[in-house]
Amino acid sequence: MDTDLGSALRRWRDRMTPEDVGLPVHGARRAPGLRREELAVLAGVSVEYVIRLEQGRAQSPSAQVLGSLARALRLTADERDHLFRLAGQSVPTSGRIRAHLTPGVQRLLRSLDDTPIAVFDAAWTLVAWTSLWAALLGEPADGRDRNLAWAHFTGRPSRVVRRPADTAAFEAEMVGDLRSAVARFPDDTELHELVDRLRGASARFEELWSGGNVTVRSADRKTIAHPEVGELTVDCDVLTVEGADLRVVAYSAEPGTEDAERLALVRVVGLQTMSR
C-alpha cells in the first residue's frame, strides 16, 4: 500500500548517494540513491521498519524516529516539517530539541571528512559524524545507545580511557548539561523520558542529578585506546551551532607528535577497512 509518507521517503532516499553521507560504495548499484539498509544504519532503525514505513504499514512513527530519518536524509528545515506532518506528528517547536543538521554543518562534515568530527544534539545524542570519527571511536551504535549519557552511565563499551578523576568530571559535566537542556526544552518529552530512564538505570546518575548542579560541557583532552594503533591522546573541542541546538565535537592532535602520527595511522587503517 502506497502512502504520501512512503512516497516522500523513497523520493528523498533516491536523491541521496552513499558518497553524500560518507558510506563506501561496493560494486555496481542497480538503482540510484541510498539503499534501505543504508538508510536504516544512518537513522538507527531496523531495515524492516524502513520497509514498513515506505509501504505504509507502520503507524504513527515517533518524533525521535522522524528526527533521525530527517537527519539521515539531509532534509531541509521545510522538508523536515513536511515529514512530520505526513506522519501526523506536530512540527518541532522551540520547546523541543531541534536536532536538524543545517546546510552549513552538512557542508562542514563533507569538507572535513579527514578530521574526526561528530555532531550531537542538545541531549548529547549522536546525529552525524565523519568517517574518520568512526574509524577512531568505532562505528556508532544503534538506537538509545547513540546517546552519550545513556551509553556511559549504563556501561556500554567505549574506546575512551579515563582516570577516575576525569570520569568524575565528565559525569558531573554531562549531568549538569542535561539539566540545563531540560530547562531550555520543557516540552521535549523524549528528553524528559531519557532523564527518567537514566535515573532508574544508574545510581551514579541519580546521585549527580539529585545534586542539582548545572554546567556545560567544554573542551578537554581524551585518551583513546584504538584496537589497531594503540593509545593516543587528542584535544576535544566542543563548538555550539547557535540556533540549531547542535554541538560539533572535533578531535585533533598536536602536529609533529606521536599522537598525531597515530591519528594519521588511524586514517589509513580506516580507509583500508572501508575499502574492504
Key terms for this structure?
276 residues, alpha+beta, 434 Repressor (Amino-terminal Domain), Beta-Lactamase, 2 domains, six-stranded antiparallel sheet, 6 strands
Topology of this protein?
Elements: H1 4-14, H2 36-43, H3 47-54, H4 63-72, H5 77-86, H6 103-111, E1 117-121, E2 126-129, H7 131-137, H8 148-153, E3 160-161, H9 164-184, H10 189-201, H11 203-211, E4 220-226, E5 230-241, E6 246-252, H12 258-275
Antiparallel strand pairs: 1-2, 1-6, 3-4, 4-5, 5-6
Task: Kindly report the spatial arrangement of strands forming the biggest sheet.
Answer: 2-1-6-5-4-3
CATH architecture label name of the largest domain:
2-Layer Sandwich
Strand content: 5-15%
CATH topology of the largest domain: Beta-Lactamase
* Average pLDDT taken over every residue: 86
Kindly provide the name of the CATH class of the largest domain.
Alpha Beta
Structural class from helices and strands?
alpha+beta
Helix content: 40-55%
Largest sheet properties = 6 strands, antiparallel
Question: What quaternary form is this?
Answer: single chain
Parts with pLDDT < 50 across at least 5 consecutive residues: none
Q: Could you tell me the radius of gyration in angstroms?
A: 19 Å
Distance N terminus to C terminus?
Answer: 38 Å
